[in-house]
Amino acid sequence: MIQSLAQVCLDGLAAVGLAAYALAARREAGPLIPRLVLLFGLMAAFYAGRALHALTGLDGLQVVAFAAVALAPTAALLLAEGVLRRHAPRLLKLAVMGASLVALGFALLTARDMAFDARIGLAGPIVLSLMAILVLLGTRDRDQLSASENRVVAALALCLAAALPLILTDFTALMTAWIGLSPIAALLIVLVILSSASGDPRGTAVEIGLLLAVAAGVSLGLAQALALSGPADLARLFAVVLAGQIVASLLVRLHAQGTADRRGGLRRRLVRADAGSVDHFLADLAEEPLLKDMTVLEAGQLADHDAQALAAVLARRPVWSLERLKAGETAASLSEAEPLIDLLERHGATHAGLLSLVPARVALARLPGLARGVEAEIDLALAFRMARLVAERR
């Protein structure tokens, strides 16, 4: 009972993590994206189907799970070809595709007659295919790839080599394993892929080490609290805790990546904006969330202040913050800051920037409290500065 419950938890966590990665990857562009989505979408479907079948007993879910995992080796080969930027040898390609078809046949024809963990007809083709892909990655022509590409391929090959023994544990009836650990292998591979973008393999290794150490500590504490005894139950608890931590790390990374992509939206709009005039330029940025509440004040609307003096102060930097003006942390004296503070407070704005010096035109923007980070201010400063360059060019 404990083994089946732990396996359901592992499979469910893997399904969540892999599906989240596949959905997030769909927003990206690049030749590898469809291959990544295919592979990890299949793996997410496998783990979700296996977990739901264990909970509900519906045979259809088991068929879906078996079919998905049987096709995974072919999807993995396609990804390997994309990473290496070359086709695999024809014989290897035919062998892997044939192995997938054999595994698919076993899966569909015997789905209702035999449990997953006893299927040598499924285990053999999958493991042999992944071993062949590992050889393909290991024997690559390193001169055909850049240094960064070679690092990514090496990291993937290392992950795959470490994953193979974990994949074998899924066939617990054949390997007498306490629990199937392939979900952890799949999650670690995704973690390495996400980390490869930073180009810091040491950081990834340290993170994995910390995850293992924390999971061990938490598992020991929970084992005592739950009065679990025996290495088998402790190993199962450790696996579930570790998988939960990896999924949490993946979700945090994916959220941060999504936030960075949204911030990049303004920069993409700046590249495409019409630089024919300031009005056209700002109109093209009007739908950007950072600039939706922007107000542009002409010289006549600055009559309560010395418009040219105000513009001269604003010209010292691309963007001014009400918070920093009040704190005296800006390159403005008290007498220079007071008109700016009054202008911002009167219009309910948090930031100001100069759009043109002659005639004086000032942009006011209101950033929500949670959005007033350094990156948001840099993006705002970039928009104001480019608008001013457009005006000065006219």
From TrEMBL:
From the record, give the transmembrane residue ranges.
Answer: 6-24, 36-55, 61-79, 91-112, 118-139, 151-168, 174-194, 206-228, 234-254
Q: What is this protein called?
A: Uncharacterized protein
| UniProt KW Metal-binding keyword | no
Query: Keywords in UniProt for this one?
Result: Membrane, Transmembrane, Transmembrane helix
The answer to whether the entry has keyword Transmembrane helix is yes
